[in-house]
Amino acid sequence: MMKRYDEAKEIYASLGVDAEMAIEALRGATISVHCWQGDDVIGFDSKEALSGGIQATGDYPGRATTPEELMADIDKAFSLIPGKKKLNLHASYAIFDGEIVGRDKIEPKHFKKWVDYAKERGIGLDFNPTFFAHPMVKDNLTLSSPDEEVRSYWVNHGKASVKIAEYFASETGVPCVLNFWIPDGYKDIPADRLGPRARFMKSMDEILTVPYDKEKVYITLESKVFGIGLESYTVGSAEFCLSYANSRGITPLMDNGHYHPTEMVSDKLSSLLLFSDKIALHVTRPVRWDSDHVVLFDDETKEIAKEIVAHDALDRVFIATDYFDASINRISAWVTGVRNLQKALLLALLRPTDKLKALQDNNEFTELMYLQEELKTAPFGDIWAEFLSREGVVADYLAEVKKYEKEVLVNRA
Ligand code: RNT
Ligand code: ZN
C-alpha cells in the first residue's frame, strides 16, 4: 500500500504536482450531505406525496421512516464517507414531540434532536425551507401565489426558517447555509410571466426583513428551468435568481440538474465567482431531465471540481449534494455519490494548475493537450486509496452496506 502511494506521489511530482498538499486540501473541503436520500424526500411533517415537479423513483427495501432510522442510516453512511461533512436538512424533517404545528409556525425546538445529533458528532447543519409536498401549495404556487393567504403562509415559513438556520449556527458553531428553492411554475404557457415573479420578489423581500447574523447564516437562492408538470415556466428562473441574489446581497445557488441539457454549470462557475463573494452548488446527475441520479465520477462532476479548485475557491463555494435514488440501496447511493464528488475534488487538486494556465496564456495548446491527457492516466487511484486509509474509512464500502442491509434495512416494516 505504502509503496504504491510512494510511487504515485513520485509520478505526480514529475508532472509538477504535490500529492501531499492535495490530500491536505481535500481534508479541509466540506461537503454538505443531503438528508433526503435516506427516505426518498418524504420527511416527517406531512402525509402528502412528494410534489413540486421532483420525483424519487424505485422501491428498494429499507427506506427510513422515522427520525431514529434516518439518523442511524446517516451514521452508517457517514462512517463510510471520508473527509469533512455537514448534514443538510429540510424543514419537512421537523421532529414533533406531541403538538404538530404548520410549516408557518415551526420553531428551533422542532429541530432540537437534529441539533443534538449534530453536536454529538461535531458536524454543522444546513437548512432548507420546504415549499412542496404540503396542502398549502395551491395550484403549484407558494411564494408567488396570487392567493394572499397562501403567499403569506409561505412567507411565514421562510421567516421561521431563517430563525432555525441561525439556531443551527449558534448551537453547532458552524455557519448554516439556508437555501430557498420554490417549485412554483406552470405546465402550460402563462399569460403573465411577470406577475408571479414580482410576487416572488416581494415575498423574498419580506422574508429578508427578518434580522439575522450574516456571519452565521448564508442565505442562498436556487434557480430551476423546469419541473415535472411545470414544463413551460418556472417562477424562479436562472435570471430571476441570479439577479435577485446579487441585488440583495445573498448567495446564488446552482443545481447542475436545473439547466438546459447543453448548458454546463462548470462553465458558469467562473462568471459567478467574479461577481459573488460566495456561491453555492447542488451537485446532482441529471439523466435526460432533472432526474437526480446518484453523482458519478463523470466528466461534468470532474469539470465542476476543476473549476472550484483551479480558481482557489474551495472556501468560497458551498458544496452540497442533491440526489435521490430509491431504486438502489440508499446508504450506498449516499456513499457513492459523495465519494465521487470528493474524488473529483482530489483529481482537480492533483493538477499542476499554474503550469496549465501558463500554457494557455502562452498559446501553447499542443503542450496543454499533451499534459492534460497525460494527467488522465496518472495513478490517481493510489492517492485516493491513501486518502481513504488516512481518514480511517474502508475502501470496500459495499461489504459494509450489504451487512447493514441484512442486519437492519430488510427488517424494517
Ligand atoms: C429541486 C431542487 C431542490 C430539491 C431539494 C429536495 O429540483 O433541486 O434542491 O431537490 O430541495
Ligand atoms: Zn437542488
State the total count of DSSP E strands: 12
Trace the largest sheet across and list its strands: 3-2-1-12-9-8-6-4
Question: What ligands can be seen in this structure?
Answer: L-rhamnitol, zinc ion
Spatial shape: globular
Overall mean confidence score, pLDDT: 97
Oligomerization status of the protein chains:
single chain
Can you offer a commentary on this structure?
- This protein is an alpha/beta fold and 413 residues long.
- The chain is built from 14 helices and twelve strands.
- The chain has helices at 2-14, 19-27, 67-79, 112-121, 148-172, 194-207, 238-248, 265-275, 299-310, 330-349, 353-361, 365-376, 380-391, 397-407, and strands spanning 30-34, 84-90, 124-128, 176-180, 185-186, 217-222, 233-234, 251-255, 279-283, 285-287, 289-293, 317-321.
- Strands 3-2-1-12-9-8-6-4 form an eight-stranded parallel beta sheet, covered by helices on one side. A two-stranded antiparallel sheet has the order 5-7.
- Helix 3 links the parallel strand 1 (30-34) and strand 2 (84-90).
- Helix 2 packs across helix 10 (330-349) and helix 9 (299-310) packs across helix 10 (330-349).
- The radius of gyration is 22 Å and the shape is globular.
How are the elements arranged and paired?
Layout: H1 2-14, H2 19-27, E1 30-34, H3 67-79, E2 84-90, H4 112-121, E3 124-128, H5 148-172, E4 176-180, E5 185-186, H6 194-207, E6 217-222, E7 233-234, H7 238-248, E8 251-255, H8 265-275, E9 279-283, E10 285-287, E11 289-293, H9 299-310, E12 317-321, H10 330-349, H11 353-361, H12 365-376, H13 380-391, H14 397-407
Parallel strand pairs: 1-2, 1-12, 2-3, 4-6, 6-8, 8-9, 9-12
Antiparallel strand pairs: 5-7, 10-11
The protein binds L-rhamnitol and zinc ion.
